[in-house]
């Protein structure tokens, strides 16, 4: 395995004002776990717990919160109205699925980078996408078998959510390709996790695909550490959430990031305003294709 140089950037968090609530299914009344919740147009987000409860770092009543979960319609409501939020299930018209007789005698790993150095960043709730373009060479290995991610976790059994997106007409991440939430359990330490998606019967799209890992901002994943500012002697609680996704520096002009409830196209100048480098940092993710 390649040697990894790990660099950690952490931020001390002081929660001044919070809003608490619960997310439920509008038909059954059951709580919905792992709902993504964002303050609209701000990099403030959270995730609902297994019992549907959530806490988000804002109390400004006129701000909008955006609630989204696979299988439910997205909902936007005011902070003042978010103590109990109901999401409506989405009714899908399913296409006929044809299961091909796969041989799985060939495998091809795509998305490898020349840069072997992987760095770990805590970028808060923001999600960064890695784009995999299509190549005619994939005709003989056109099925997506696995997604592989490099992570560093301070705790055992940290959880993270996998997303696979089609490319929309503007080149942004579009339709979700998975039919249900895929929650992945990550081991402690620096690990290379292989996530099998064979059961979803996905072909590599001709327009390419985006792979995204969403950090679940839940109590189970929380890591707290007491730190002291030696200049002021003030003690703070430093909060992070495991696992941290590792990143590679690559030559790209831009990166797609999800923040504030929408996808943003960030240029390398926006991502690294004080750097003359031509690189951006993208998640250390690869795909395994098979026949």
Automatic annotation (TrEMBL):
Q: Which residues form the signal peptide?
A: 1-17
Organism, by scientific name, is: Flavobacterium gossypii
Q: Which domain of life is it from?
A: Bacteria
Keyword Signal listed: yes
Key word Signal present: yes
Q: What is this protein called?
A: Carboxypeptidase-like regulatory domain-containing protein
Q: Pfam families this protein is in?
A: CarbopepD_reg_2
Which UniProt keywords are listed? Signal
